[in-house]
Structure formats: C-alpha cells, structure tokens
Design goal:
Layout lengths: L1 H12 L1 H9 L10 E7 L2 E6 L2 E2 L1 H5 L4 H4 L3 E7 L5 E5 H17 L7 E5 L4 H13 L2 E4 L6 H11 L3 E5 L1 E4 L2 E4 L1 H10 L6 E5 L14 E3 H6 L11 E2 L5 E5 L7 E5 L2 H13 L8 E4 L6 H13 L3 E6 L9 H9 L1 E6 L1 H8 L16 E4 L6 H11 L3 E3 L11 E2 L16 E2 L4 E5 L13 E6 L9 E2 L3 H9 L8 E9 L5 E6 L3 E4 L2 E4 H8 L5 E11 L3 E10 L8 H18 L8 E4 L13 H8 L14 H12 L2
Parallel strand pairs: 4-17, 6-7, 6-8, 7-14, 8-11, 11-12, 16-17, 16-18, 18-19, 19-20, 31-32
Antiparallel strand pairs: 1-2, 3-13, 4-5, 9-10, 14-15, 15-25, 21-22, 23-24, 24-26, 26-27, 28-29, 30-31
The structure holds adenosine-5'-monophosphate-propyl ester (PRX).
The site of adenosine-5'-monophosphate-propyl ester has 21 residues, from helix 11, strand 26 and strand 27.
Length: about 625
C-alpha cells in the first residue's frame, strides 16, 4: 500500500501542490489565484479567483477532440426508446434548452427545480442550468407532493422543469397532477412550469400562463448558441436535498470549480475510466450518484454516459449485461440492493453476454454484504469495488484507488480514506481516536476536500451545527456513520449513528416518515424504525398509537387502517417512504423523560435483544411492540 499511502499523505500534508495538480484536469476560463481559502472554518473555498463552468467542462470542451463521439446513450426498457447523442448533438440540445430557460428570464443564481424521469431532457436541463449559472435542485421522481412542496419552499425556484409522467415496471407514474398539487401546497411557488410531454399521460392539461410545452419552446431555438456564464469557483452549481435527523431535509450546496476538479480526479484515480470509453451508472439523476456519475463525472472526463430508464430485471435479468456488451462499457457503478435483486434470478443471465470490456464494477450507497460481493464478483469475473460516500461529500470518502495502486480487495470493506480526506475514527463519547478494531464514529478533519458540500443552502449556521458539533473538544466533520479499521488499515462501515435509514440505497429520515404517517387524522403518535431486509438492506416499519382505538380493534379494522396510512404516506412522501408494515399499539416504549426508545423497538423488530431497558417508563410499551411483531398483526 506504499504508493497509495504516499499519495494520500501528500494530499493532506502538501495539500496546495496536490490539488493544484488535480485542478489541471479541467479547463479554467481564468486561472485561480489561491488553491484554498480556509480563513473561515469550516467553510472552505477551493481554487479562489478561478472561473470555470461545469457545462463547458462536460460538453463544449470536448467539441474539439470528440464532437462525433457518443456523449449520452439513452436506453429505456420502459418505453422501448433508445436515443444517442454525440457531444456535438448534446451541445446543440443543451443550447436549445438553455435558450428556452433564458427566454423565461433565467439568469445566474436563479434556482430551477427539476422533477424528471430518467430521460435525456433531464440531463439537458441540468447542463443548461449550470451553463447559465442557474442553480438546479433535482428532486427524485419517487417523492410526492408534500416533499416536493417543502423543497420548493426552501429553494424558491423561479421555474420547475418536469414531464407528464415517469414509468416503472411498465406502469405510468403521472407527474403533472403531483406537481400541480405541490405548487398549490407551496408558499413560494415557481412562476413557470416547463413540461416535457412524453405522450404517456393522455389527460395532460397545461395551465395557461404558467405551463409551457418543452417541445414547442425548443422548436423556437433550434440554432441557439447560448454563451457559457463563467462562475467563480466557489459559486454554487446545485442544491441536492438529503435526509438527516430532523424531519426537514437539508439542501446540500455544491460549488463549481471544486466539484469539477474532484470529479475529474476521481474518474482517473478511482474509476479508471478512459476518455472515449463508456460508463454505466444505474442510479437515478435524483440522487447524488446520478449527479456525479451519470451526468457530470463521465462527461467531464470525455466518456460516454449511459442513461438507463428501467428495472434491472425487465425485460429479463440480463438487460444490464446486454447493455455492457452492446456499448462496451468499461466502468459500471451500481448499488448492493440491485445486485441482491439479481442474485435471486437464474445465474445464467450473468453469463449470457460478453462483459469482457468491463474493468470494474463499483458499488456504493449502503452496506455491501460479503456474500453478495463474492457472488457478483465470481459470476461476472470482474473486480467489484465497494466504496463509501454521502450526498454531502459528492464523491468517495473511502475507496480503493486502483488508478494509483492495485491494492488487494477485502470483501466487506469499502477500502480506505480517499485522497483529500483526513479521516479519523473517534470514540463516541470521549472524542479520542480509537485503535484498530474498535468501533467509532467516522469523522473527517476539515477542511473538507474539493467537491464536498460547501454549506446547507441558505443556512450556514445549520451546516456548522449539524456536521461540526458532535464532539465537545474536536472540530471535525461527522459522517454520522459507525466505522472500524482493521489491522491492515481497511475500513468497515457499521451503520448510521442517527435516525437515517437506508432503503434500497435510498436515504430516508425516520422523522420524515413519522411526520407523513402523522398526517393521518387517526394517528396520535408514531415511531418509525429501519428494520433489516434481505434485499433492500433496510425497510421502514411503523408502530402507531391511534386516537380512536375502536377502529383497530379487529384484524379487518387494522388492515384497513394500515392501508389508509400507506395511502397517506404515498401522497405526502411518495412510495419510497412507505413503511413495510404499520403495527398499531396502545402505547410506545418511552423513557421516563418521554423519549421514544427507537433502538429498542428496532431491536425487537429485528428479533434481537432490546438491550438496556432500565430507563423505560412502563414495560407495557415494549410488550406491545413485541407482541405486534411476533403475531405479525
Ligand atoms: O450510511 C452510509 C451509507 O449511505 C449514506 C449516504 O447515503 P447518500 O447520502 O444517499 O449517499 C450515497 C452516495 C453513495 C452513508 O452515510 N453508505 C454509502 N455508501 C456505503 C454506505 N454504507 C456502507 N457501505 C458503503 N459503501
């Protein structure tokens, strides 16, 4: 590991020289004056004074050498549509989209909310925003009206970019009604809605004066050339909301220059992709993995990116490998849940196609269990690299660096600290660094490296309070993850320290789900916990106390009430947050000070020992949870 160690050491102790070298991987309009301004901890400003643009680096820059190369390959097994765009064509589409936005008065600093299925127009819209210096806030298409409304009110977008519908498993998911509902709920609604009509929703109704049809607007700007707006490196590129302990998601704010440099560097050192090759990331543009490795990372690196709309098992479970074969994918990035889904299928699907172009399969987003890692690695005969990161970091915090050194892989470990991250494992209460094989909180000594969040949108104080105040005497960034390092220096992630759960790689706050469940008028109180699931990693499970107990007195009553709660969550949060079960109990287990014992509830739901119950106010609560779980009713 000597080469890796030296590379990592230099990134920390000779930080300026290290990042100055990395910064050469992108194009700057004006060079930066200073690598890092850290005069106001923890706010780091990378590449001060340099001006650049993400769209220029992802698109325009490649026109010189690779205009005719495919930039974006769109494959939809939902609609049967495939579309391919060369860098020249992508450039034209992004300019058209930027012209449409510009005509609506969008200028630098304006926010635009993008609520889109996995279609090329979503990518055009993201790139068009950053081209203009407008700040995009992409909201995952699985979120419902209430979640959308709260994100609208936080970012106050001038415009909302959406489509008539998404598709999942062959079924349409109408977006328009949901968007209308969210705009009704919002206190600061956008003035305009641009709608990509895919022809899925036959009843589509545009609201005059507010809604514009994208195809119609685009047609007005076929030859548009919209100049790039050069941004100072620290100026924001986007906001991406993520869940935490409170019910209110945080707007993770990303800069421009630092992010571009971080992604460009990661494409070389971590993913080992080569310009001209194809990268296939199976995430969604609504998540951070989609932002960094469907859209910006591969394009900045001059790679072809594959945008896939569909499930991993439709039309059959060989579909991903067929795509790999067809497009000679060299780097693939997916999630453990997806692999566990494939593991349940016939193994023959994995060998049907020639995947010899694949150099690596990267996985992230949730713990990767060893049997799954081994299974996929053996079946594909491709090295599988687990790596660990967060919406906040924007790129890997723990990873192997095959581009630097081919260190041996250990199943179950996402590797070791990536360059730029001064990782410390700190004891939960004392804040002291722990030794090998001791469980502790994963923290990073600031400044955070380029590419990481620069603040919480509009709430600098919340950024500091949330991430930098976990330890009394140590000013460190906390990941809210438990970790452990073995004798060889390999790290292992052991789950969250807070109330965040990870459902199929989707990060959700239990408080958000509790708030959604409480939206039902017969719910008095509810606790939601994450419960182990063999496929999805975790699923949310709710334990609720009702106001009118007569409604849940019979099995039929409980079942009807559970269904009503599902519906309430579906409309508030979206199906992503729907609990796997809602159990009705007469009381929740609480401490004498009234705090709900979520960890004990979780333990019981997973069939484990609930642990120390001495602080319990009334044992009745625990018994209720226990009997609900064991009877399944
Ligand atoms: O708990 C960790 C888990 O997912 C969280 C971050 O989720 P999100 O913000 O959606 O970003 C995902 C970016 C890949 C982390 O705090 N997590 C992420 N990767 C891993 C992981 N847990 C274990 N192993 C991983 N490789």
């Amino acid at each position: 590991m000597a080469t890796y160690r030296e590379f990592h050491r230099r990134s920390i102790t000779d930080r300026d020289a290290f990042w100055r070298e990395q910064a050469a991987a992108i194009e700057w309009h004006e060079p930066f004056r200073q690598v890092l301004d850290y005069s106001r901890p923890p706010f780091a400003r990378w590449f001060v004074g340099g001006t650049t643009n993400l769209c220029h680096n992802a698109v325009d820059r490649h026109l010189k050498d690779r205009a005719g190369q495919n930039a974006l390959i769109y494959i939809s097994t939902e609609t049967g549509q495939d579309r391919t765009y060369t860098f020249r064509e992508l450039h034209a589409e992004v300019n058209r989209c930027a012209a449409v936005l510009r005509e609506q008065g969008i200028v630098k600093g304006d926010r635009i909310l993008i609520y889109m299925p996995m279609v090329p127009e979503a990518v055009f819209a993201m790139l068009a925003c950053v081209r203009l210096g407008a700040i995009h806030s992409v909201v995952f298409g699985g979120f419902a009206a209430h979640s959308l409304a709260s994100r609208i009110d936080d970012a106050k977008p001038k415009l909302l970019f959406t489509a008539d519908a998404g598709m999942r498993g062959g079924k349409p998911i109408p977006y328009k009604g949901l968007v209308d509902e969210a705009i009704k709920l919002a206190a600061h609604p956008p003035q305009k809605v641009i709608l990509v009509n895919r022809g899925i929703d036959g009843d589509l109704k545009l609201i005059a004066g507010r809604d514009l049809d994208y195809a119609h607007e685009r047609a007005k700007h076929m030859d548009a050339q919209v100049p790039v707006t050069w941004l100072e490196s620290s100026e924001p590129s986007y906001i991406l909301y993520t869940s935490g302990t409170t019910g209110k998601p945080k707007g993770v704010q990303r800069d421009t220059g630092g992010y571009a440099v971080a992604l460009a560097a990661s494409m070389k050192h971590i993913y080992c992709g080569k310009p001209g090759e194809a990268m296939f990331t199976t995430s969604d543009i609504g998540w951070v993995v989609g932002h960094s490795y469907i859209v910006y990372g591969p394009l900045i690196h001059g790679m072809t990116t594959i945008l896939y709309e569909g499930l991993p098992i439709r039309p059959d479970p060989a579909i991903w490998w067929k795509i790999v074969e067809q497009h000679k994918v060299s780097v693939m990035f997916s999630s453990p849940t997806a692999i566990r889904v494939l593991k349940k299928q016939d193994q023959a699907y994995l060998t049907r196609h020639d995947v010899s172009s694949l150099r690596y399969l990267f996985l992230a987003g949730e713990p990767l269990d060893e049997p799954t890692a081994r299974w996929i690695s053996d079946s594909l005969k491709v090295p599988v690299l687990d790596h660990y990161w967060q919406t906040e970091t924007g790129w890997a915090l723990l990873s192997s660096l095959p581009g630097i050194e081919a260190t041996p892989l250990k199943f179950g470990s996402p590797g070791f600290p990536a360059y730029g991250y001064d990782v410390k494992l700190l004891h939960e209460t004392t804040g002291e660094e722990v030794g090998a094989n001791e469980k502790a909180v994963v923290t990073v000594v600031p400044p955070l490296p380029p590419g990481c969040m620069t603040t919480v949108w509009g709430q600098d104080e919340r950024f500091v309070q949330t991430y930098f105040t976990s330890f009394k005497d140590k000013f460190v960034y906390t990941t809210f993850d438990w970790g452990i390092r073995d004798d060889d220096g390999y790290y292992f992630i052991l789950g969250r320290t807070d109330d965040v759960i990870n459902v199929a790689g989707h990060r959700l706050g239990t408080r958000e789900i509790e708030e959604a469940v409480s939206g039902h008028n017969n719910i008095a109180e509810v606790a939601v916990v994450g419960v182990h699931d063999a496929i999805k990693g975790q699923v949310p499970m709710a334990f609720a106390v009702v106001k009118d107990a007569s409604r849940v007195a019979t099995a039929e009553g409980r079942s009807a009430m559970e269904k009503e709660v599902f519906d309430v969550v579906d409309t508030a949060l979206g199906p992503v947050g729907r609990p796997s079960r809602v159990f009705f109990v007469a009381q929740l287990p609480k401490t004498r000070s009234g705090k709900v014992l979520r960890r004990s509830i979780q333990a019981i739901a997973e069939g484990r020992d609930p642990g120390d119950l001495t602080t319990l106010d009334d044992p009745g609560g625990i018994e209720q949870v226990h009997s609900a779980v064991t009877s399944g009713d």
